[in-house]
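Lecture notes, part 5. Sequence design as translation. It can be helpful to think of inverse folding as translation between two languages: the language of shapes and the language of residues. The source text, in structure tokens, appears below.
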């Protein structure tokens, strides 16, 4: 029996934001997602624009955007949907991660 393939997706809003930014930036192959040890709950998201893909990276194509993830971060991000939201004067990326068991009060870190 084969294991189900991991999945990370972008909403149309997030994909559009990334595509527009990459076009303005003039370079980049996609969006790199990862996790790092940080904060009061243990893990924090890393989000940056990817200029290159490493041999060990896992790549997802979601709404026309390549999402690049290192293999160590993938178990923590599997099933995550990344959205870009605007709420009043605030706008930014929002992670919807089904693996999160608890988040810190400030929303900067999480644990699984």
């Amino acid at each position: 029996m084969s294991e189900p393939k991991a999945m990370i997706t972008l909403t149309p809003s997030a994909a559009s934001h990334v595509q527009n930014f990459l076009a303005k930036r003039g370079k980049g192959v996609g969006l790199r997602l990862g996790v790092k040890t940080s904060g009061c709950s243990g893990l924090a998201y890393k989000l940056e624009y990817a200029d290159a893909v490493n041999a060990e990276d896992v790549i997802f194509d979601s709404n026309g955007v390549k999402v690049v993830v290192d293999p160590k971060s993938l178990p923590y991000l599997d099933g995550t949907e990344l959205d870009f939201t605007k709420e009043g004067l605030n706008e930014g990326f929002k992670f919807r991660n089904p693996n999160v068991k608890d988040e810190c009060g400030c929303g900067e870190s999480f644990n699984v």
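The translated text above is only one of many valid answers, since several sequences can fold into similar shapes. The two ends are 26 Å apart (CA to CA).
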